[in-house]
Amino acid sequence: MRQDPFGRQQPSPGRGRRVGGLRIGILLLFAAYGAYYYFSNRTEDPVTGQKVLIDRSLSVDDEKSLGLQAYQEILSQERPVDPSLPISQEIRGIADRLIAKVDDVEAALAAEHGMQPTRFSQTFEWEVNVIDSDQANAFCLPGGKMAVYTGLVPVAQNENAMAVVMGHEIAHALLRHGAQRMAQQRLTQVGQMAGAMSGMDPQQQQMVMAAMGYGYLLPYARKHETEADEVGLMLAAAACFDPREAVPLWERMGQSGGGESAPEFSSTHPNPGTRIQNLQALMPKALEYRERFCEQAM
Ligand SMILES: [Zn+2]
Q1: DSSP code of 6?
Q2: Environment of ion ligand 1 (residues, CB < 5 A)
Q3: Strands 145-149 and 138-141
Q4: Which secondary structure element, helix H or strand E, spans residue 127, and what is its range?
Q5: Per-position pLDDT tens, the chain of length 298
Q6: Which residues pair with 127 in a beta bridge?
Q7: Are 237 and 289 in contact (CB under 8 A)?
Q8: Catalytic residue among 63, 106, 159, 169
Q9: What is the whole-number distance in angstroms between the Cα of residue 261 and the centre of ligand 1?
Q10: How far is the CA of 5 from the centre of ligand 1 (A)?
Q11: Residue 194 and residue 173: Cα distance in Å, rounded?
Q12: Nearest to 139 by CA among 279, 16, 262
């Protein structure tokens, strides 16, 4: 063995390779677990025809109770508007019309992919509250718990546009986007753990995570937005609202969402120009859905 003048031992080449091998071994183990998790939890969503990742150990009931818990927490922190006031009744009226068309629209979209709908929203306990707030926001949690913020009313301007936003939110819950995000987070954690255990320094880890965010998680979130736009538009059209209001609505939304943005309308939302192009492309189909499912004479 070579000895340096200060008496320190040179690391022998064999040892270095062993450490490197261990690192790669750990990374491979995590990669194998990640791949196993990914492939064993993938299903096809009949409504979108897309392969999605939802943890099989998370039941619809678990998801509903998580939604309910979050809902109660939000309502206890915010200022819900008296349900007997006209604004609350109007919003509930829109919600009821949309909810009444969920089964028809799910079945029609699933049929386009040659599939049967899951009808998993059958067990939803729908509820809608109006929250007194400046935010131009709305949400629908797993299990059908919805809220519309009063700040959305002047941006929506009319019931057709309001129905487009609420349809979009309902679609997120129907498509189980929350559960999909949870599965994504699980995979991200596996990646983080692998990074930490294989001895990546925090800076390297951050770089990898940032790359994943831009390359993988963010487009994934945008895809959810695009899916919710489509399913929501079909719901609004089937419930006899005018889907063409979607275009001016998202234009107004783009203008109002300058500085502060609420969680739902954050950077995960598609670029406004792309979104409007997508909506315009969907318009013939939306009008066809209205023809088919709206019993009201136009
Ligand atoms: Zn959304």
Answers
A1: T
A2: 225, 228
A3: antiparallel
A4: strand 127-131
A5: 444 544 455 554 445 455 677 777 877 887 888 888 888 878 888 888 888 878 777 888 888 888 999 999 999 999 999 999 999 999 999 999 999 999 999 999 999 989 888 888 889 999 999 999 998 999 999 999 999 999 999 999 999 999 999 999 999 999 988 888 887 877 777 777 777 777 777 777 777 666 666 556 666 788 899 999 999 999 999 999 999 999 999 989 887 763 333 344 445 556 677 888 999 999 999 999 999 999 874 5
A6: 145
A7: yes
A8: 169
A9: 13
A10: 66
A11: 32
A12: 262
Rounded distance, CA 54 to CA 69, Å?
A: 20
Q: Compute the residue count for the chain.
A: 298
What is the C-alpha separation between 234 and 231, in angstroms, rounded? 5
Q: What does pTM read for this prediction? A: 0.80
Q: Is 169 a catalytic residue?
A: yes
CA separation for the pair 283, 245 (Å, rounded): 10
Q: What residue has token string 């959810």?
A: 224
Cα distances (Å, whole numbers) of residue 121 to 49, 108, 152, 186, 297: 17, 15, 25, 24, 28
Cα separations in angstroms, 188 against 22, 34, 172, 208, 233: 22, 9, 21, 11, 31
